[in-house]
Amino acid sequence: MVPGSNPGIPTTAQAPLRYNKFMQFGGKVNLNKELISRITDVRNIALYVFIIIVLAITWSGVRAVQTNYELQKKASALRQKNTVLRLENENAALENKYLETDQYLELAARQNLGLAAPGEKVLLVPKAVALKYVDSSLIASGTDKEKTRIKDNRPSYIKNLEDWRDFLLGRKLFDD
User: pTM for this one?
Assistant: First the structure.
């Protein structure tokens, strides 16, 4: 203590004293015991348990949302795949139905077998003679069909419409 100072008022040279039930060794407080008593207080332990329960519930909720999102993605992908397969089946059924029609049988007989309807004459023209009067750039593009399809940047619906037009008009039915 500094001479001439009041013992009840702390000075800068003297640390403030805290008086409580843990005072030992000449009035100094053992801070470790005080901290341990605060931590182990029943109210604080209940608070810690509450915080742990809230964190566990939050974590399980987040996991449930994540699992639900993943399952929804899988279900959506399976629905899309199912729709595509159903459309492919419908297309195959329509194609089979068309292949059974008389129109297709007549067309196939004319093109593949060289047959004609009664009263018609069939003229077989050799390929070299038929291509003699055709522009060579058209012939080259016809033989490089795969290359032109790769370079073709038109939307698929336009290509599809042109393919149907060519099919119905009897153009490019079979690849030579």
Answer: 0.40
